[in-house]
Amino acid sequence: SGNVSGNQYDVLCGAGSLNLINGSVGGFPLAVGAPYNPNQGAAPIDFVNTVPGGANYNRAYFQLLRRNTEGGPRISDLTHTSYRGVLGSKGDLGKVWSYDAYYQYGRTNYTQVYKNEFSAARLTRALDIVDDPNQPGINPVCRSVLDGTDLACRPYDVFTGAAPSQESINYLNVFGVITGRTSEQIAHADFTGTLGEYGIQFPWAEDGVGVNLGAEYRKEKLSLSPDQSFQTGDLTGQGAPTLPVNGQFRVIEFFGEAQLPVVQNNFIYELTFGAGFRKSYYELGTGRKYDTNTYKLSAELAPIKDIRFRGSYNRAVRAPNIQELFAPQFVGLDGSNDPCTKTITATDYGCLAQGLVVGQSPTANPAGQYNGLLGGNQDLKPEKATTKTIGAVFQPSFLPRFALTIDWWSIDLKDAIQGFGADAILSNCVNFSTATVVAPSCDLINRDASGSLWLTPN
């Protein structure tokens, strides 16, 4: 955005003009008196207001779409440094029981240095060019140099077709730095028992019942610290600000498993049942608490050694991770396609549901970049999955090294933790809206007054 005179405003924003404001990518209007005007024979457009008492500025917004081809590619240097230490002990506690206990600490330090970026703040000043009144003739100079707010500013020429000066590129070039750290602590102890020594054994089995009991404590932390240029969105190639992330959670778990051999090498080759249960107590860094239950049941049947049937029923959960919980919400690049960039007809129900009208033709983003709302949610609940499997394994003894496995499985996932990207939301709205039904996803789409998803910051 910038301050423009009344004549400039008419040229840039006029409905009949070929310009960036009304959705057309056109040439920038040039005036004879403008320092960058190469066409000295053009009729002058007065870009200076001569209102008594000073300039009478209007405020206008337009998008300048240009690649920094002269400055070379953007470069991102990523460094991950990981540390991990484990202290543990395991052994036997008599004939029946054994134990395994350990403490583990791990940490990963992260650094990103993003080079060869342009500063949006400096670019604004480098495009705000006036004629230097202290020099004869036409001498382009940054307004910020004349008023003393930024003496280092150098004009960035994007209008004549000539390459910008190396001085201006050097002035605009900046770098950004992000540092971060993740850490995890685990304290674990479990005990395994072969209960056949106590006589807990089925009469047709050679082995006794086996059990495993234990507990585990985990704590995870994450911090991400972008510098000021990342946080303010000053880096033009990032698409949006990169905001700090800080979060942690801890969990205490108790678990138990059992293996029950019922038949071994008896009237059938093998029949074994298994079961397991885990109780988890979570506490977030915000103080919020919740708990989860997971369990499993399994069975294996081998009538003879060559054929084995198996099946299982499992309840699994996945708790949200730190990014999913604590990432701040922001508007950033999240889409590559607008399915409504065409002439809208009466049967384009999804596009009409977004506020467009018949005959309207929204302009596509030439870079294929659209913004969306991104971020975490501290109210997320664990997702749950019910898994069922049935299978068979054939290993005929008369065919050495041959095995045939057949498995059927079913996974039913509820309360899935997932984000819906901009492309998916737009596609859902367009594909599932009808003349009488508007897809709920359409309510998540925000277009500006002209119907665009990108031409204005609204």
TrEMBL record:
The entry's keywords: Cell outer membrane, Membrane, Receptor
Domain (TonB-dependent receptor-like beta-barrel): residue spans on this chain: 49-429
Major localisation: membrane
GO cellular component: cell outer membrane
Cell compartment(s), UniProt: Cell outer membrane
Record PANTHER family: PTHR47234, TONB-DEPENDENT RECEPTOR
Protein name: TonB-dependent receptor
Originating organism: Sphingomonas cremea
Lineage: Bacteria, Pseudomonadati, Pseudomonadota, Alphaproteobacteria, Sphingomonadales
